[in-house]
Amino acid sequence: MGGVLMKKFMKKNRFFVIAALGLIVLAIVDFSLSIKALEHSYSSLKSMLLVIPPIFVLIGLFDVWVERETMIKLMGENSGAKGMLIAFFVAAFSAGPTIAAFPIAAMMLKKGAKYTNVLFFVMVWSTLKLPIVIFQVSTIGLKLTLIINITMLTVFVLGAIVANKVFTETETKALEEKAQAI
Amino acid sequence: MSIDTYIIYGLALAVLIVSFVLDKKKTMKGIKKGAISLLKILRILVPLIFIIGILMVIINPDVITSALGEGSGILGYLFAFVVGSITFLPAFISYPLGAELIEAGAGVPQVAGFLVTVMSVGVVYISAEIKYFSKKATLYRNLISLIGAVLVVLIVWVVF
């Protein structure tokens, strides 16, 4: 009985367990390192808690205001190149960590956006956001920035187009279904 | 606070005000929905932050610099991809680090590979990504990004 409960607890909280074990091992190897790890976690936790609430406010408002019909027209099954362009511009003019793109993308799916457009949106968000590009030019120079961005944009466009063949209708339907629960 | 944070708060505030003026009830419902989704994901996100904290101590900038050195060869490339793929780093951390790495003598193609994967491939976040999408979708997106990173490295290697 205790074993079953324990197993259930471990499964539900496996990331907490992994984190705790990692910290314990680190503390045994070098105590100062575990303090450093906690300091690092604390500062990223702080910046994450700062940046995430407004994103979820936007997601919630998106949910109540944006009509399904509108989303389907803009980014749905038959939106074609327009759907991809919209995905590109929304992602490029956004701000925030890549992890924030996931719930936004799921919300788009929930409202009837086509999966490959949503996939393209997440990929562009991760790499080609305008705030990133400005940062890139000032730190690693224009040449490297151009190589990275042109290559990645090409790969992302092709990746989204190929995804139309890779994912079956059943699979994309399942993704949409899952998004209803966010 | 980074510029990103200001942009998001500005945007959220503007949308919130417009929404509130248009329909108070709907706005409250939206905020509630947002809060619920936020709580759902925090359960996964918070322990991940601790795991990343541990990884960051083990793989610190010194380790990265020595591993991505000019003469690091094929191992340097592998290391760039592996380290870059572990987590996502925000641009305001990864790009200055990339510039520093190049200045400290790291190879430009290796640094480019590191920068692209650190933006687009996030193995630590796979569990969160699967929660929103599916295993296949998560694998596909990360794989496409990795292919992009390999191409960037090849092009940079030829050009520089």
Q: Return the domain count of chain A.
A: 2
Q: Output the structural class of chain B.
A: mainly alpha
Biggest sheet layout of chain A: none
Rough outline of chain A: globular
As residue ranges, the low-confidence spans of chain A are: none
Number of continuous helical runs of chain B: 8
Helicity of chain B, as a percent range: over 70%
| Largest beta-sheet characterization of chain B | none
How much of the sequence lies in strands of chain B comes to under 5%
Strand content of chain A: under 5%
Total number of beta strands of chain B = 0
Measured between the Cα atoms of the first and last residue of chain B, the distance is: 35 Å
Query: For the CA atoms, what is the radius of gyration of chain B?
Result: 19 Å
Describe this structure in words.
The complex is a heterodimer of chains A (182) and B (160). Chain A has 182 residues and is mainly α. Chain A is 86% helix and 0% strand. Chain A contains ten helices and no strands. In chain A, α8 runs antiparallel to α9. Chain A starts with a helix and ends with a helix. By secondary structure, chain B is an all-alpha fold. Chain B contains eight helices and no strands. In chain B, α6 runs antiparallel to α8. The longest helix of chain B is centred in the first third of the chain and has 35 residues. Chains A and B meet through α2, α3, α6, α7 and α8 of A and α1, α2, α5, α6 and α7 of B.
What does the secondary structure layout of this molecule look like, with pairings?
The complex is a heterodimer of chains A (182) and B (160).
Chain A: H1 2-12, H2 14-29, H3 31-65, H4 68-75, H5 80-92, H6 98-110, H7 115-128, H8 130-140, H9 142-166, H10 169-179
Helix pairs in contact in A: 2-3, 3-6, 5-7, 6-7, 6-10, 7-9, 8-9
Chain B: H1 3-22, H2 24-58, H3 61-67, H4 73-86, H5 91-103, H6 108-120, H7 126-132, H8 135-159
Helix pairs in contact in B: 1-2, 4-6, 5-6, 6-8
